Structure prediction request, 176 residues.
Amino acid sequence: MKHLVKREETHVREVTYEVEADSPEEARQIVDNQECWIMVEDVCAEVVDWEMANEVTVKTMKFETHNDNPAVEEEACNGTCLQGEITADYNELVMAFGEPTAGDEYKVDAEWCIKFANGTIATVYNWKNGINYCGPSEGTPTEQITHWHIGGFNPDAVDLVRGEVFAKQRGGVTSG
Prediction:
């Protein structure tokens, strides 16, 4: 059976797959064509580039952040409330969701605004433990914060955020 085999993944959720096929034509037929949407690991993905004859790069659409779409910041970063917490290094969050926004620059030093493919809205942010709120002598520098809040409109936000971060911590990808 011909299928896609993951070759590499970048932090921007672009994944390169090798298409196991006998010819480039068969590889393209497996994926349909360059503009199609395909299912990769049960996640809807868009083909964004054909690297070589039997290699294709797809962009998964599990979620988008303020980095992918500025409208997400307006939608996701407004009106959410605390749903749970997560312990993670700043760099692990950057690997999972990209660079954060500056938050409100008062009680929040860094914030990620996320909209998952199923419509769930989530925010990940520090709360009153950084330099903005506590000052430089008592506040934790953003890159050293490990205790983060997860906001949203329902508890699903917690499971989805934790799933993405834990997958990155294990060096893998989630399956949707």
Q: What stands out?
A: The beta strands are 4-9, 14-19, 37-40, 43-52, 55-60, 63-65, 81-87, 111-116, 121-125, 147-152. Residues 156-169 form the longest helix (14 residues). Helices lie at 24-31, 70-76, 90-97, 131-134, 156-169.
